[in-house]
Amino acid sequence: MSDRATIELDGVTFDAPVIVGSEGERALDIRRLRLDTGLVTYDPGYGNTGSAQSAITFIDGEAGVLRYRGYPIEELTDASFLGVSYLLIHGELPTSEELERFRRNITLHTLLREDMRPFFDAFPTDAHPMAILASATNALSTFYQDHYDPSDPDDVEISIYRLMAKLPTVAAWSYKRSIGQPYIYPSNELGYAENFLSMMFAVPAEPYVCDQDVADALELLLILHADHEQNCSTSTVRMVGSSHLNLFGSISAGITALWGPRHGGANQDVVQTLMQIHESDDDVKAFVARAKDPKDPFRLPGFGHRVYKNYDPRARIIKEIADRVVGKLVGADPLFEVAQRLEEVALNDDFFVERKLYPNVDFYSGLIYRSMGIPLPMFPVLFALGRLPGWIAQWKEMTEDPHTRINRPRQVYVGAGYRTFVPTDER
Ligand code: CMC
User: Fold this and answer.
1) CA of 83 to the centre of ligand 1 (A)
2) What is the pTM of this model?
3) Which of 272, 300, 303 to probe ligand 1 with, by most ligand atoms within 8 A of CB?
Protein backbone atom coordinates (compact mmCIF):
# COMPACT_ATOMS: atom_id res chain seq x y z
CA MET A 1 0.00 0.00 0.00
CA SER A 2 1.26 3.42 -0.92
CA ASP A 3 2.47 5.73 1.82
CA ARG A 4 1.98 8.93 -0.24
CA ALA A 5 -0.87 10.39 -2.30
CA THR A 6 -0.39 12.94 -5.03
CA ILE A 7 -2.68 15.89 -5.58
CA GLU A 8 -2.11 17.65 -8.92
CA LEU A 9 -3.66 20.92 -10.01
CA ASP A 10 -2.60 23.35 -12.75
CA GLY A 11 0.83 21.77 -13.02
CA VAL A 12 1.48 22.01 -9.27
CA THR A 13 1.97 18.68 -7.49
CA PHE A 14 1.52 18.05 -3.80
CA ASP A 15 2.77 14.86 -2.20
CA ALA A 16 0.65 14.06 0.84
CA PRO A 17 2.14 11.55 3.28
CA VAL A 18 -0.33 8.86 4.44
CA ILE A 19 -0.66 8.50 8.21
CA VAL A 20 -1.81 5.04 9.38
CA GLY A 21 -3.61 4.67 12.70
CA SER A 22 -3.16 1.69 15.01
CA GLU A 23 -6.36 0.07 13.65
CA GLY A 24 -5.31 0.56 10.03
CA GLU A 25 -7.26 3.77 9.36
CA ARG A 26 -5.48 5.87 6.72
CA ALA A 27 -5.39 9.64 6.54
CA LEU A 28 -3.77 12.16 4.20
CA ASP A 29 -1.47 14.54 6.02
CA ILE A 30 -2.27 17.86 4.35
CA ARG A 31 -0.64 20.13 6.91
CA ARG A 32 1.67 21.65 4.25
CA LEU A 33 -0.98 21.82 1.50
CA ARG A 34 -1.69 25.56 1.65
CA LEU A 35 1.93 26.45 2.25
CA ASP A 36 3.09 24.47 -0.80
CA THR A 37 0.15 25.03 -3.19
CA GLY A 38 -2.08 27.87 -1.92
CA LEU A 39 -4.99 25.40 -1.76
CA VAL A 40 -7.19 24.71 1.25
CA THR A 41 -9.63 21.82 1.72
CA TYR A 42 -13.41 22.32 1.93
CA ASP A 43 -15.26 19.98 4.32
CA PRO A 44 -18.32 21.54 6.00
CA GLY A 45 -19.31 19.52 9.07
CA TYR A 46 -15.77 18.05 9.07
CA GLY A 47 -17.08 14.66 7.88
CA ASN A 48 -13.70 13.80 6.32
CA THR A 49 -11.39 15.80 8.52
CA GLY A 50 -9.18 14.16 11.11
CA SER A 51 -8.61 16.97 13.60
CA ALA A 52 -6.36 15.01 15.97
CA GLN A 53 -4.31 11.88 16.43
CA SER A 54 -5.92 10.41 19.52
CA ALA A 55 -5.20 7.31 21.61
CA ILE A 56 -8.39 7.47 23.70
CA THR A 57 -11.40 6.04 21.86
CA PHE A 58 -11.71 3.87 18.77
CA ILE A 59 -14.95 3.60 16.78
CA ASP A 60 -15.57 1.42 13.74
CA GLY A 61 -18.88 2.89 12.63
CA GLU A 62 -19.44 0.31 9.88
CA ALA A 63 -18.99 -2.63 12.25
CA GLY A 64 -20.65 -0.97 15.28
CA VAL A 65 -17.50 -1.17 17.43
CA LEU A 66 -16.62 1.16 20.32
CA ARG A 67 -13.51 0.80 22.49
CA TYR A 68 -12.12 2.98 25.27
CA ARG A 69 -8.31 2.76 25.35
CA GLY A 70 -8.59 -0.57 23.49
CA TYR A 71 -11.24 -2.15 25.74
CA PRO A 72 -14.56 -3.01 24.03
CA ILE A 73 -17.43 -1.09 25.60
CA GLU A 74 -19.22 -4.38 26.27
CA GLU A 75 -16.36 -5.46 28.59
CA LEU A 76 -16.44 -2.25 30.60
CA THR A 77 -20.03 -2.63 31.74
CA ASP A 78 -18.93 -4.31 34.99
CA ALA A 79 -16.38 -1.60 35.81
CA SER A 80 -17.17 1.44 37.95
CA PHE A 81 -17.68 4.87 36.40
CA LEU A 82 -14.68 6.24 38.30
CA GLY A 83 -12.58 3.28 37.12
CA VAL A 84 -13.55 4.01 33.51
CA SER A 85 -12.91 7.74 34.07
CA TYR A 86 -9.41 6.88 35.32
CA LEU A 87 -8.87 4.66 32.28
CA LEU A 88 -9.89 7.43 29.88
CA ILE A 89 -7.91 10.16 31.62
CA HIS A 90 -4.74 8.18 32.47
CA GLY A 91 -4.72 5.56 29.72
CA GLU A 92 -4.68 2.40 31.88
CA LEU A 93 -7.15 0.64 34.15
CA PRO A 94 -6.33 1.59 37.76
CA THR A 95 -5.04 -0.83 40.38
CA SER A 96 -7.25 -0.94 43.46
CA GLU A 97 -4.88 1.49 45.25
CA GLU A 98 -4.89 3.90 42.30
CA LEU A 99 -8.67 3.75 42.08
CA GLU A 100 -9.03 4.33 45.83
CA ARG A 101 -6.70 7.36 45.67
CA PHE A 102 -8.58 8.73 42.64
CA ARG A 103 -11.93 8.24 44.39
CA ARG A 104 -10.65 9.86 47.61
CA ASN A 105 -9.22 12.85 45.77
CA ILE A 106 -12.54 13.38 44.00
CA THR A 107 -14.71 13.01 47.10
CA LEU A 108 -12.55 15.61 48.89
CA HIS A 109 -13.95 18.21 46.47
CA THR A 110 -17.68 17.40 46.22
CA LEU A 111 -18.82 20.47 48.17
CA LEU A 112 -19.46 23.73 46.35
CA ARG A 113 -18.22 26.93 47.91
CA GLU A 114 -21.06 28.39 50.00
CA ASP A 115 -20.82 31.62 48.06
CA MET A 116 -21.95 29.69 44.96
CA ARG A 117 -25.39 28.99 46.48
CA PRO A 118 -26.86 32.38 45.54
CA PHE A 119 -25.98 31.68 41.89
CA PHE A 120 -28.62 28.95 41.85
CA ASP A 121 -31.23 31.18 43.50
CA ALA A 122 -30.61 33.85 40.86
CA PHE A 123 -31.73 31.68 37.92
CA PRO A 124 -35.43 31.63 36.97
CA THR A 125 -37.08 28.50 38.41
CA ASP A 126 -37.82 27.27 34.90
CA ALA A 127 -34.22 27.76 33.68
CA HIS A 128 -33.00 24.84 31.59
CA PRO A 129 -30.55 22.87 33.79
CA MET A 130 -28.03 22.63 30.91
CA ALA A 131 -27.79 26.44 30.94
CA ILE A 132 -27.23 26.35 34.70
CA LEU A 133 -24.67 23.54 34.41
CA ALA A 134 -22.68 25.37 31.73
CA SER A 135 -22.83 28.69 33.59
CA ALA A 136 -21.93 27.21 36.97
CA THR A 137 -19.05 25.21 35.46
CA ASN A 138 -17.63 28.40 33.98
CA ALA A 139 -18.32 30.20 37.28
CA LEU A 140 -16.28 27.55 39.15
CA SER A 141 -13.22 29.00 37.43
CA THR A 142 -13.74 32.27 39.31
CA PHE A 143 -13.10 30.49 42.61
CA TYR A 144 -9.88 28.78 41.54
CA GLN A 145 -8.09 31.43 39.49
CA ASP A 146 -4.73 30.72 41.14
CA HIS A 147 -4.93 27.02 40.28
CA TYR A 148 -6.14 26.62 36.73
CA ASP A 149 -3.04 27.12 34.60
CA PRO A 150 -3.45 24.63 31.71
CA SER A 151 0.32 24.19 31.44
CA ASP A 152 0.83 23.35 35.13
CA PRO A 153 0.28 19.59 35.75
CA ASP A 154 -0.62 20.15 39.44
CA ASP A 155 -3.23 22.76 38.50
CA VAL A 156 -4.64 20.43 35.84
CA GLU A 157 -4.82 17.53 38.31
CA ILE A 158 -6.72 19.46 40.95
CA SER A 159 -9.03 20.98 38.29
CA ILE A 160 -9.87 17.43 37.16
CA TYR A 161 -10.77 16.39 40.73
CA ARG A 162 -12.81 19.54 41.26
CA LEU A 163 -14.81 19.09 38.05
CA MET A 164 -15.45 15.37 38.57
CA ALA A 165 -16.51 16.06 42.16
CA LYS A 166 -18.57 19.21 41.76
CA LEU A 167 -20.50 18.67 38.54
CA PRO A 168 -22.94 16.16 40.12
CA THR A 169 -23.57 18.66 42.93
CA VAL A 170 -24.19 21.49 40.45
CA ALA A 171 -26.46 19.24 38.37
CA ALA A 172 -28.56 18.12 41.35
CA TRP A 173 -28.82 21.66 42.72
CA SER A 174 -30.08 22.96 39.38
CA TYR A 175 -32.92 20.43 39.72
CA LYS A 176 -33.63 21.34 43.36
CA ARG A 177 -33.81 24.99 42.28
CA SER A 178 -36.42 24.12 39.64
CA ILE A 179 -38.73 22.43 42.18
CA GLY A 180 -38.10 24.84 45.06
CA GLN A 181 -36.66 22.20 47.42
CA PRO A 182 -33.67 22.70 49.74
CA TYR A 183 -30.28 21.93 48.23
CA ILE A 184 -28.92 18.62 49.51
CA TYR A 185 -25.21 18.43 50.33
CA PRO A 186 -23.05 15.63 48.91
CA SER A 187 -22.42 12.57 51.01
CA ASN A 188 -18.89 11.25 50.64
CA GLU A 189 -19.58 7.73 51.89
CA LEU A 190 -21.89 7.11 48.92
CA GLY A 191 -20.81 5.92 45.47
CA TYR A 192 -20.70 8.41 42.57
CA ALA A 193 -24.15 7.57 41.14
CA GLU A 194 -25.74 7.03 44.58
CA ASN A 195 -24.47 10.39 45.81
CA PHE A 196 -25.96 12.11 42.76
CA LEU A 197 -29.32 10.36 43.23
CA SER A 198 -29.32 11.33 46.90
CA MET A 199 -28.69 15.01 46.07
CA MET A 200 -31.50 14.81 43.50
CA PHE A 201 -34.15 13.03 45.51
CA ALA A 202 -33.40 13.30 49.24
CA VAL A 203 -35.19 15.89 51.37
CA PRO A 204 -33.96 17.03 54.80
CA ALA A 205 -37.22 15.90 56.43
CA GLU A 206 -36.65 12.16 56.06
CA PRO A 207 -33.94 9.60 55.32
CA TYR A 208 -33.35 8.69 51.69
CA VAL A 209 -32.79 5.08 50.70
CA CYS A 210 -31.35 4.63 47.24
CA ASP A 211 -32.54 1.68 45.15
CA GLN A 212 -29.35 -0.23 44.29
CA ASP A 213 -30.68 -1.29 40.88
CA VAL A 214 -31.30 2.36 40.01
CA ALA A 215 -27.80 3.37 41.15
CA ASP A 216 -26.25 0.48 39.17
CA ALA A 217 -28.20 1.38 36.02
CA LEU A 218 -27.16 5.02 36.32
CA GLU A 219 -23.51 4.05 36.83
CA LEU A 220 -23.70 1.93 33.67
CA LEU A 221 -25.32 4.75 31.68
CA LEU A 222 -22.54 7.10 32.77
CA ILE A 223 -19.93 4.57 31.56
CA LEU A 224 -21.67 4.20 28.18
CA HIS A 225 -21.63 7.98 27.66
CA ALA A 226 -18.06 8.52 28.91
CA ASP A 227 -16.32 9.19 25.60
CA HIS A 228 -17.01 9.13 21.88
CA GLU A 229 -13.90 10.55 20.18
CA GLN A 230 -14.20 13.78 18.16
CA ASN A 231 -17.96 14.48 18.42
CA CYS A 232 -19.36 18.02 18.43
CA SER A 233 -18.97 18.76 22.17
CA THR A 234 -15.56 17.09 22.46
CA SER A 235 -14.29 18.98 19.42
CA THR A 236 -15.63 22.12 21.09
CA VAL A 237 -13.70 21.36 24.28
CA ARG A 238 -10.54 20.84 22.21
CA MET A 239 -11.22 23.92 20.08
CA VAL A 240 -11.75 26.21 23.06
CA GLY A 241 -8.89 24.60 24.98
CA SER A 242 -6.53 25.10 22.04
CA SER A 243 -6.57 28.82 22.87
CA HIS A 244 -4.88 27.80 26.18
CA LEU A 245 -8.03 28.40 28.18
CA ASN A 246 -8.37 26.67 31.56
CA LEU A 247 -10.22 23.36 31.94
CA PHE A 248 -13.36 24.87 33.58
CA GLY A 249 -14.06 27.24 30.67
CA SER A 250 -13.31 24.54 28.08
CA ILE A 251 -15.69 22.04 29.72
CA SER A 252 -18.37 24.72 30.05
CA ALA A 253 -18.17 25.26 26.27
CA GLY A 254 -18.50 21.49 25.75
CA ILE A 255 -21.64 21.37 27.92
CA THR A 256 -23.22 24.11 25.81
CA ALA A 257 -22.38 22.25 22.58
CA LEU A 258 -23.87 19.05 24.00
CA TRP A 259 -27.16 20.79 24.79
CA GLY A 260 -28.27 20.99 21.13
CA PRO A 261 -31.05 18.63 19.97
CA ARG A 262 -28.85 17.14 17.23
CA HIS A 263 -26.37 16.12 19.95
CA GLY A 264 -26.99 15.38 23.67
CA GLY A 265 -30.35 17.15 23.72
CA ALA A 266 -31.78 14.33 21.59
CA ASN A 267 -32.53 12.10 24.61
CA GLN A 268 -35.03 14.69 25.84
CA ASP A 269 -36.55 14.99 22.35
CA VAL A 270 -36.95 11.21 22.04
CA VAL A 271 -39.23 10.96 25.08
CA GLN A 272 -41.19 14.04 24.00
CA THR A 273 -41.71 12.44 20.59
CA LEU A 274 -42.72 9.11 22.12
CA MET A 275 -45.29 10.97 24.25
CA GLN A 276 -46.68 12.70 21.16
CA ILE A 277 -46.92 9.36 19.34
CA HIS A 278 -48.68 7.80 22.34
CA GLU A 279 -51.13 10.71 22.51
CA SER A 280 -51.88 10.24 18.80
CA ASP A 281 -53.14 6.67 19.41
CA ASP A 282 -49.68 5.17 18.90
CA ASP A 283 -49.65 6.16 15.23
CA VAL A 284 -45.97 5.26 14.75
CA LYS A 285 -46.25 5.15 10.98
CA ALA A 286 -47.43 8.79 10.77
CA PHE A 287 -44.29 9.95 12.59
CA VAL A 288 -42.05 7.79 10.43
CA ALA A 289 -43.75 9.28 7.35
CA ARG A 290 -43.08 12.81 8.68
CA ALA A 291 -39.40 11.95 9.26
CA LYS A 292 -39.15 10.82 5.62
CA ASP A 293 -40.90 13.85 4.17
CA PRO A 294 -38.22 16.17 2.69
CA LYS A 295 -40.58 19.15 3.16
CA ASP A 296 -40.98 18.46 6.88
CA PRO A 297 -37.96 19.44 9.06
CA PHE A 298 -38.92 16.74 11.60
CA ARG A 299 -36.33 14.01 12.16
CA LEU A 300 -36.74 10.96 14.34
CA PRO A 301 -34.73 11.88 17.44
CA GLY A 302 -32.51 9.06 18.65
CA PHE A 303 -31.96 7.79 15.09
CA GLY A 304 -28.94 8.19 12.85
CA HIS A 305 -25.33 8.98 13.53
CA ARG A 306 -22.46 10.62 11.69
CA VAL A 307 -20.13 7.70 12.38
CA TYR A 308 -22.29 4.62 13.02
CA LYS A 309 -23.73 3.08 9.90
CA ASN A 310 -24.77 0.11 11.99
CA TYR A 311 -26.54 -0.40 15.33
CA ASP A 312 -24.87 1.84 17.91
CA PRO A 313 -23.28 -0.63 20.39
CA ARG A 314 -24.26 1.65 23.27
CA ALA A 315 -27.90 1.61 22.19
CA ARG A 316 -27.87 -2.20 22.25
CA ILE A 317 -26.70 -2.25 25.88
CA ILE A 318 -29.04 0.59 26.88
CA LYS A 319 -32.01 -1.26 25.40
CA GLU A 320 -31.18 -4.25 27.63
CA ILE A 321 -30.97 -1.99 30.70
CA ALA A 322 -34.27 -0.37 29.75
CA ASP A 323 -35.88 -3.80 29.45
CA ARG A 324 -34.76 -4.63 33.00
CA VAL A 325 -35.03 -1.33 34.84
CA VAL A 326 -38.11 0.28 33.29
CA GLY A 327 -40.12 -2.89 33.93
CA LYS A 328 -38.99 -3.08 37.54
CA LEU A 329 -39.57 0.60 38.30
CA VAL A 330 -42.78 1.42 36.49
CA GLY A 331 -44.12 -1.91 35.20
CA ALA A 332 -45.35 -2.02 31.61
CA ASP A 333 -44.44 1.40 30.19
CA PRO A 334 -46.53 2.26 27.11
CA LEU A 335 -43.74 4.58 25.91
CA PHE A 336 -41.23 1.71 25.94
CA GLU A 337 -43.65 -0.25 23.81
CA VAL A 338 -44.04 2.69 21.40
CA ALA A 339 -40.24 2.98 21.22
CA GLN A 340 -39.81 -0.69 20.33
CA ARG A 341 -42.53 -0.45 17.69
CA LEU A 342 -40.96 2.71 16.26
CA GLU A 343 -37.59 0.98 16.06
CA GLU A 344 -39.13 -2.00 14.29
CA VAL A 345 -41.00 0.13 11.75
CA ALA A 346 -37.98 2.35 11.05
CA LEU A 347 -35.52 -0.54 10.72
CA ASN A 348 -37.77 -2.13 8.10
CA ASP A 349 -38.35 1.04 6.13
CA ASP A 350 -36.34 1.58 2.92
CA PHE A 351 -35.64 5.25 3.76
CA PHE A 352 -33.91 4.28 7.03
CA VAL A 353 -32.30 1.15 5.58
CA GLU A 354 -30.79 3.00 2.60
CA ARG A 355 -29.42 5.78 4.81
CA LYS A 356 -28.23 3.28 7.45
CA LEU A 357 -30.15 5.06 10.21
CA TYR A 358 -30.18 2.98 13.39
CA PRO A 359 -31.10 3.81 17.01
CA ASN A 360 -28.31 5.74 18.69
CA VAL A 361 -27.30 6.17 22.35
CA ASP A 362 -30.15 8.62 22.97
CA PHE A 363 -32.99 6.41 21.79
CA TYR A 364 -33.62 4.32 24.93
CA SER A 365 -31.67 6.24 27.60
CA GLY A 366 -34.44 8.81 28.22
CA LEU A 367 -36.95 6.07 29.02
CA ILE A 368 -34.65 4.79 31.76
CA TYR A 369 -34.10 8.26 33.23
CA ARG A 370 -37.84 8.83 33.16
CA SER A 371 -38.53 5.58 35.00
CA MET A 372 -36.06 6.74 37.67
CA GLY A 373 -38.12 9.87 38.21
CA ILE A 374 -35.62 12.16 36.52
CA PRO A 375 -37.43 15.01 34.73
CA LEU A 376 -37.02 15.55 30.97
CA PRO A 377 -34.80 18.67 31.01
CA MET A 378 -32.29 16.80 33.20
CA PHE A 379 -31.67 14.11 30.55
CA PRO A 380 -28.92 16.00 28.70
CA VAL A 381 -27.42 16.88 32.08
CA LEU A 382 -27.02 13.17 32.77
CA PHE A 383 -25.31 12.85 29.38
CA ALA A 384 -22.93 15.67 30.38
CA LEU A 385 -22.06 14.00 33.70
CA GLY A 386 -21.21 10.83 31.81
CA ARG A 387 -19.21 12.61 29.09
CA LEU A 388 -17.14 14.65 31.55
CA PRO A 389 -14.17 12.23 31.87
CA GLY A 390 -14.03 11.93 28.07
CA TRP A 391 -13.89 15.69 27.66
CA ILE A 392 -11.18 15.88 30.32
CA ALA A 393 -9.13 13.10 28.71
CA GLN A 394 -9.41 14.71 25.27
CA TRP A 395 -8.55 18.18 26.59
CA LYS A 396 -5.53 16.75 28.44
CA GLU A 397 -4.35 14.80 25.39
CA MET A 398 -4.70 17.97 23.28
CA THR A 399 -2.76 20.17 25.72
CA GLU A 400 0.03 17.56 26.04
CA ASP A 401 0.35 17.00 22.28
CA PRO A 402 3.37 18.94 20.91
CA HIS A 403 1.59 19.23 17.52
CA THR A 404 -1.33 21.20 18.99
CA ARG A 405 -1.81 24.64 17.47
CA ILE A 406 -4.70 26.99 18.07
CA ASN A 407 -7.67 25.56 16.17
CA ARG A 408 -8.32 27.94 13.37
CA PRO A 409 -10.02 26.58 10.23
CA ARG A 410 -9.79 28.32 6.87
CA GLN A 411 -12.77 29.28 4.71
CA VAL A 412 -13.72 29.75 1.09
CA TYR A 413 -14.89 33.36 0.83
CA VAL A 414 -18.00 33.78 -1.36
CA GLY A 415 -19.06 37.32 -0.37
CA ALA A 416 -18.96 40.65 -2.23
CA GLY A 417 -15.80 41.69 -4.08
CA TYR A 418 -13.94 44.91 -3.27
CA ARG A 419 -16.20 47.97 -2.96
CA THR A 420 -15.79 51.43 -1.47
CA PHE A 421 -17.69 52.74 1.54
CA VAL A 422 -20.79 54.85 0.77
CA PRO A 423 -21.76 57.43 3.47
CA THR A 424 -25.28 56.99 4.95
CA ASP A 425 -26.80 60.08 3.26
CA GLU A 426 -25.60 58.91 -0.18
CA ARG A 427 -27.14 55.40 0.02
N1 CMC B 1 -34.65 11.02 10.94
C2 CMC B 1 -34.91 11.14 9.61
N3 CMC B 1 -33.95 11.30 8.69
C4 CMC B 1 -32.68 11.35 9.11
C5 CMC B 1 -32.33 11.24 10.47
C6 CMC B 1 -33.39 11.05 11.39
N7 CMC B 1 -33.13 10.94 12.70
N8 CMC B 1 -30.99 11.33 10.59
C9 CMC B 1 -30.51 11.50 9.35
N10 CMC B 1 -31.54 11.51 8.46
C11 CMC B 1 -31.42 11.60 7.00
C12 CMC B 1 -31.12 13.02 6.55
O13 CMC B 1 -32.30 13.75 6.29
C14 CMC B 1 -30.32 12.77 5.30
O15 CMC B 1 -31.20 12.39 4.28
P16 CMC B 1 -30.90 12.86 2.74
O17 CMC B 1 -29.63 12.16 2.36
O18 CMC B 1 -32.09 12.38 1.98
O19 CMC B 1 -30.77 14.35 2.77
C20 CMC B 1 -29.48 11.53 5.65
O21 CMC B 1 -30.27 10.83 6.62
C22 CMC B 1 -28.10 11.84 6.21
O23 CMC B 1 -28.27 12.74 7.30
P24 CMC B 1 -27.21 13.86 7.67
O25 CMC B 1 -27.93 14.97 8.37
O26 CMC B 1 -26.38 14.20 6.49
O27 CMC B 1 -26.30 13.06 8.70
P28 CMC B 1 -25.31 13.70 9.73
O29 CMC B 1 -24.23 12.71 9.91
O30 CMC B 1 -24.92 15.07 9.33
O31 CMC B 1 -26.19 13.83 11.06
C32 CMC B 1 -27.26 13.30 13.11
C33 CMC B 1 -26.12 12.95 12.13
C34 CMC B 1 -27.08 12.49 14.37
C35 CMC B 1 -27.17 14.80 13.46
C36 CMC B 1 -28.63 13.00 12.43
O37 CMC B 1 -28.72 11.60 12.18
C38 CMC B 1 -29.81 13.46 13.28
O39 CMC B 1 -30.21 14.62 13.19
N40 CMC B 1 -30.39 12.55 14.14
C41 CMC B 1 -31.46 12.95 15.05
C42 CMC B 1 -30.87 13.63 16.28
C43 CMC B 1 -30.15 12.65 17.17
O44 CMC B 1 -30.62 11.57 17.47
N45 CMC B 1 -28.98 13.07 17.66
C46 CMC B 1 -28.16 12.26 18.59
C47 CMC B 1 -26.94 11.71 17.92
S48 CMC B 1 -26.11 10.40 18.84
C49 CMC B 1 -25.56 11.08 20.31
C50 CMC B 1 -24.93 12.39 20.23
O51 CMC B 1 -24.04 12.65 19.44
O52 CMC B 1 -25.32 13.24 21.02
Assistant:
1) 32
2) 0.95
3) 303
